[in-house]
Amino acid sequence: MRRSGLRRIQLACLLRAVTAGLTAPYLYVYLTQVRNFSASTAGVIFTLQALSMMGTLPLAGRIIDRSGRHRAIAICGAGGAVLSTCGFALAADVPAAMTAAVAMGACFGLSQPVNATLIIRYTIRQTRPGAYSTLFWLQNLGAGLGALLGGEIVDVTKPSTFVILFAIGAILLLPPAVIFATMPALDNSRMRPRSVRHGIKLMFWRDPPMRYLLLLNAVVFFVTYGQFEVGIVAYAADVQHASPQVIGIAMTTNFALIVLLQPFTVKLVQHHRRNRVLAIAGTAWLASWAVMTMNALAAASVIATYALLGLGEVLLSPAMEPLVAELAPADLIGSYAAAIAMVRQIAIAVGPIFGGIMHGFHLYNAFLASLIACTLFMITLAFRFHRHLTPSQNRIAAPAPKRT
């Protein structure tokens, strides 16, 4: 049952990743070059999407922990995502684009704790790093295929091509709704007493390992994923004069590298300390910012930047993702997963508006310096993280040997 349920989750996430790959890499270009919004306005739109997602996360986490009604949350999230994707295609002005962004953020915010809770419930400690890595592998495979297909479809001189793009994405979001809606109900028989549950929010900040994990997630997602769709893309388009096709190829390279390396990385990092693996990932990102300064290389610099980012990502997945299950009480998995997702969304909310403002004022060197400083801070946090983890928590588990 565990294996069957996990495969259904992975299939649903694969289809949603294809949709993300289709639309996300070209949304900035669509807003600024097709709809003629300013870079700062585009950054605000991305920020509204992230803030909307953040606002729905605590509600979804509490519902999962208290009632296990992940079906209703998944249906609302997936159905609303279909409508909001179509809304972007028809967004001819700023208010319409902002409305679509808010709706999409809310829908994805409902889905994130459901996904995290289901993965934890359908795995055990020995299989969890591999499950997260496989999921990450499938997500990047889908996103890479979507980005490659999207690059062949879009044409900034033909707005109708973006309508086609968003329509395909909306269709691909329908099957995940069916998959999640038919998942068996979660076992919530071990409910935390109401008097204790009342202090759940404070528990996150009184728990040193969780506090460090929240801070580490904030820095990582601000400096990487928070810049993926605006900061790095804007730098590539405005400074290095990269075309949408080059950006699409760069993102596809990122996804392809993850797809190729992730299976081997899982075996490579087994039994290693999580904090050291995270520090190595940060070092790869430092190298990507160094390559990003090589404007004379133009397209090659953009592609190499995304490739090095991917190298850090393959190390991040098996080291960081299973930590939620290591630290969370069994009856608060949804709330802990929602807290992590919320911090990530805060970082993703701040990231685009920061990148949009920096590029809007042509502060390109300051933008790169900020990325370098944040990455150095992340590496420092990673080295200090082991002080707050037990040896077992800091050690990446290996699959249990098969019985003969």
Secondary structure layout plus pairing:
Elements: H1 2-34, H2 39-67, H3 70-89, H4 94-121, H5 128-153, H6 159-172, H7 174-181, H8 194-197, H9 200-206, H10 208-223, H11 225-228, H12 231-238, H13 244-268, H14 274-292, H15 299-320, H16 323-327, H17 333-360, H18 364-385, H19 391-394
Helix pairs in contact: 1-4, 1-5, 1-6, 1-7, 2-4, 2-17, 3-4, 3-6, 3-7, 4-17, 5-13, 5-15, 10-17, 10-18, 12-17, 13-15, 14-15, 14-18
Low-confidence stretches: 193-199
Helix amount: over 70%
Helix/strand class = mainly alpha
Radius of gyration: 20 Å
CATH top level assignment:
Mainly Alpha
Shape: globular
Mean pLDDT: 81
The total count of helices amounts to: 19
What is the helix/strand order? Answer: HHHHHHHHHHHHHHHHHHH
Number of strands: 0
Quick one: CATH superfamily? MFS general substrate transporter like domains
Number of structural units classed as domains: 1
CATH fold title: Growth Hormone, Chain: A
Distance between the termini: 21 Å
The major sheet is characterized as: none
CATH architecture title: Up-down Bundle
Percentage beta strand: under 5%
